[in-house]
Write a structure and sequence with these properties.
By secondary structure, this protein is an alpha/beta fold. The protein contains eleven helices and 15 strands. Strands 11-10-9-12-14-13-15 form a seven-stranded mixed sheet, with helices on both faces. A six-stranded parallel sheet has the order 2-5-1-6-7-8, covered by helices on one side. Helix 1 packs across helix 5.
Amino acid sequence: MISKEHKKHASLTRPALGSFARNEWAIVGAPCINIKLLAADVIAALSPQYKCAYADTSHNDEVTLPPGRLASGAFLEYTDQLNYHQFNFNNGLRPINFKHQFTDADLVLVNGNHQPAKAQVVIIYNNKIASLQKRVDELTNVELILLADNVDDVFDFIKEAVPNWQQLPMYRLDETEKIINFFKTKLQNARPAINGLVLAGGQSIRMGVDKGTITWYGKEQRYHLADLIKTYCDDVFISCRADQQTAIEDGYNTLPDTFTGLGPFGAILSAFREKPDSAWLIVACDMPLLNKETFDHLLKNRNPSSIAAAYESAFDGFPEPLITIWEPKSYPVMLAFLAQGYSCPRKVLINSDITLLKAPDNEALTNVNTPDDFEKIKRQIHQKIAST
């Protein structure tokens, strides 16, 4: 007999996404041309620093043929234009498709006359009273009110729908600089918090002993690194295999791999699975020369608009993935690489938009993977300690 009892889905922490992205505002209450012009002003001002996007709906009510090869039956067409790239879809996009397309956006402005977003900007415009009343149920998180030229007060039905309307910033529609600064401040305050992850779950086959347990500075390296990075992070975790958890000292958080068999790639994904809205400062325990200056420089030059901030390897010029700040937007990117059969964090960095930095001290990025490496670095560390 087969049980028909409902089986619950796995308990997963979902990213704090709206209809399109984490930071999105529907602009509602004005003619579409005013919304387009306002969005253009904000995007022009913020795009040098942030990846900005816009979502709207066409007003073309006529029955027209689909563009290009879609008219011949293709479901998708891509065109490499001279100064932009164009995708045409035949089938409608589902909500999850929008989140995928906008995954890299820092800011999404939406024409709220046609589509919703998780936060709203309400324009009080006399000629759009009826339209705004139709969408009053969509005003779930109003964060800014704008008054058009011919308006001096907020509509009564908005006051009822938005109980905290008097505490919200309110500008005139032509106060462009104030409006731009509103969005700039919102994006600055939305900068993701950073957690730390010490990678200590490897097999250490070449070394012959667990590299995380090697003592370089009076304590095991996994604890030394966790203590070193905690000043930069909200929380610090030691990444490990499930069978290693009981060996970790009390007082140190553990984060066992849930993406198993993937090495560091799986450890990073496991961290994002736990906290998908945090950035993660990843550090491998096989770099005993890492110091405060190396971390200071990395954090100082962090850029949440890119998917990661990493150092350039002095050995081959490629990004060093295991002392890197991985931003939340890198999570879906890494999953997409995994879906295509790639599990190399460096390959993700090489093929993505990242902030690539020169290390203040290239020697600090030295890996220790073999007994010969161990002896060499051990002598180097002892000499430094003796000289100081």
